[in-house]
Amino acid sequence: IFLGFVVWGYVSAQKQISMRSNFLYAFVGYIIAFFILLLIPNTLRIYLLFSLLNGLSSGIFWLCIHSYEMVFIQDQQRDFYSSMLSLGSQILSVIAPLLATISFFFAERVLHAPPFLLLFSMLPFVYAGASLIIRTLPDFTPEKIMASDRTFVLFSPTLKRVRRFYTAQTMTIFSGVILPIIRILTFVTLINIGVFETI
Hints:
Elements: H1 2-15, H2 19-39, H3 44-72, H4 78-110, H5 117-131, H6 147-155, H7 160-169, H8 173-187, H9 190-198
Helix pairs in contact: 1-3, 2-3, 2-5, 4-9
């Protein structure tokens, strides 16, 4: 994610790559990542390759989202926009695990196939469908980043608290990594985990 958001974000600014193109790169990366999982026998190297592509795509996706937010959301719209994002997030936090659990159940019990087969088969088409929306977005190309910009972000006393905040935010490793491990060890099967997540 860091490579997609920060490193590729810097490259995009310096090479003047539009955010609309970057959205497309993110979705293509997601599609390729899931096809790799589906079509190539799964080994540790394949999981690492998937993680690299999926993380890179995720970083580019969030680079685009935040760029569009900063440029196109007016100050007077930010409260409403934030509320809509929160609402969508809450709805998806129930619907996504529910649909995933149904796909696990159907794959295992009806098709007698690996539990992730249906879900991983559907996701590339979801991303392909989402990529069609990209054409309707206004185009935006970031300005080039100057050396003075880098110095300001990294060393300016004005941003000292902001840097501390973002450093502290990296501690979300607990919820992003450790909690899923605890859930897997506690609930054992994918269906049990999915039911718990939905509830």
